[in-house]
């Protein structure tokens, strides 16, 4: 952490990307093209029907070329001029990076990366569709670099360490009662402030906890204009 610079840690979820037009991971009925989400987001689903899984993520990767960061992404990036800012995101898009954030940790992987289906550490950049027969350097089929159901969130330890150094912890557009948000809350220093921005907050305000019941763009703007020390 830079000298005399407050360390602001953001934990962002689907709510911030939704305002840029990115559909949430699952729709209201939990299906994608009449397939259960587990069929396209689990190791078992990939083994059973790899083409279906590749189609699912190829469609999402192509969507990244059509969407742009919203005001919340830009405001978070601009805070780097005054603060030490780290973004921990559950999102697999690249909107934080597009907005200019330089310190982003993706908990659940990234659409613009692929990896070997056998070696999770063999990761490469990926800006095109992944096809059956596309191989990693170890000769195994490429797969999206995404944490699927049943797979370990390998970056959580790094995220905990980042959170432990926060002066201000800001949650934007994700639930505070599900993993990994809940576990990260336990790592926030006792003397740090926590701000929770969400349209449907599932907690009440408390000691060192400010709840802003707004969408991401409005809530982050309020945070920047009304809450941050200068």
Classify the beta-strand content into a percent band: 15-25%
The rounded distance between the terminal residues' Cα atoms is 17 Å
Strand tally is 11
Number of helices: 9
Biggest sheet statistics: 6 strands, parallel
Roughly what percent helix?
25-40%
Strand order of the largest sheet: 5-4-1-9-10-11
Secondary-structure element order, as H and E? EHEEHHHHEHEEEEHEHEEH
Rg over CA atoms, rounded to whole Å, is 18 Å
Q: Helix/strand/pairing class, anyone?
A: alpha/beta
Shape: elongated
Q: What average pLDDT do the residues reach?
A: 91
Low-confidence stretches: none
Could you please describe the fold and organization of this structure?
With 230 residues, this protein is α/β, with parallel strands linked by helices. It has helices at 14-18, 37-40, 43-48, 50-63, 71-78, 95-99, 156-163, 181-185, 216-227; strands at 7-12, 31-32, 35-36, 84-89, 104-106, 109-116, 123-125, 142-146, 168-172, 193-197, 209-212. The strands form 3 sheets. Strands 5-4-1-9-10-11 form a 6-stranded parallel beta sheet, with helices on both faces. A 3-stranded antiparallel beta sheet has the order 7-6-8. Helix 5 runs parallel beside helix 9 (216-227).
């Amino acid at each position: 952490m830079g000298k005399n610079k407050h360390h602001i840690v953001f934990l962002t979820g689907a709510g911030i990307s939704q305002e840029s037009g990115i559909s949430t991971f699952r729709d209201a009925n939990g299906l994608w093209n009449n397939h259960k989400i587990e069929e396209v987001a689990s190791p078992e689903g990939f083994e059973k029907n790899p083409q279906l899984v590749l189609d699912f993520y190829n469609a999402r990767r192509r969507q990244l070329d059509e969407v742009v960061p919203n005001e919340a992404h830009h405001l978070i990036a601009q805070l780097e001029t005054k603060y030490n800012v780290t973004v921990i995101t559950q999102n697999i898009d690249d909107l934080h990076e597009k907005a200019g954030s330089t310190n982003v940790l993706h908990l659940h992987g990234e659409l613009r990366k692929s990896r070997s289906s056998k070696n999770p550490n063999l990761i490469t950049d990926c800006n095109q569709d992944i096809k059956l027969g596309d191989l990693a350097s170890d000769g195994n089929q490429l797969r999206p670099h995404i944490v699927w159901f049943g797979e370990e969130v390998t970056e959580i330890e790094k995220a905990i360490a980042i959170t432990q150094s926060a002066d201000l912890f800001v949650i934007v557009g994700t639930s505070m009662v599900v993993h990994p948000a809940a576990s990260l809350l336990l790592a926030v220093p006792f003397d740090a402030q926590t701000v929770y921005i969400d349209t449907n907050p599932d907690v009440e305000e408390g000691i060192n906890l400010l709840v802003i019941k707004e969408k991401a763009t409005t809530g982050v703007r309020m945070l920047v204009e009304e809450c941050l020390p200068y």
